[in-house]
Request: fold
Amino acid sequence: MKLLRYCATVALIVAANSGAFSSAFAADPVFPPGARVGMTPLVGLNKARTFIGFETEDQGVKVLIADLPAEAYGEVANAFKAAPGGVGGIKPESIETAAGLAYYTVENAKDGAANVRRYSMILPGPTFSGYVAVQVPENAARIYTDDAVRQMFASAVIRNEVPVEEQLGLLPFKISELSSFKNIRTLAPGAALILSDGDEKTGFEVAPFMIIGLIGSTAASPDDRGRFAQQIATTIPGVRDGRITMSEPVRIDGQPGYETRIDATSGKDNTPVTIVQWLRFGAQTSMRIIGSSPRDDWTKAFPRFRAVRDGIHPRG
Reply:
């Protein structure tokens, strides 16, 4: 079943991040920082410290919130209709939320040696599918019951946009210049950001956009920076028939960097694009800044990309 595929992927995050209280609710739905899915958490659940969602003080009960691709909801809904009795002993359930009809599953599982109860829900969003995964250890199951979790699921709501300042505040660096990009959204809250003139419906490739984030590697030595930059450039997603037209060292905010430019094809409409990738090297990580524009718009787009790049600084 497609739900299990989606759920298994995100549930691993819950497991990796791995008291008595009432099942009463707080007054209003709460959106964890950076999340487009919110809900009214059960009393005792607070905003999580190391992932997007909620957790108890002892971190035993976890509620992970994430975005999935827009088509995920439809695939899950079709799978539920095709097998209403479930697969592998896991029976799907449906529930009405403010966002629309949601589907969820409940199963017994293991978190290391401990027995846990896992709940996974998917709900429709305007340009994405909302996902919520809950993990309840056996010693909390009398309080976090199936009915209590179901009530929490029923309180789920969607917001189309996360305030820009909220998104920027999660990043490990500061951005002081946004170059009038129309849409700003975190790709991975606290790790990567996309600035674009297009959106999920029209496609990002048909207009200028940027992706900014940190990668957990860097060049082994100054002499290795060129090879490293060109190798990383080949991993830009959605790019076809790429051809590197320039790759040379630069200084970015006083630090060593590398600029690489690529002519390629991108998107479902095979849009000819020009891409610039800047790497700013650190001791153990690198900042990666990608700017992509339809080739006809490159002359106007490049100064915007450079202005954003020059407005990125370390926090503190």
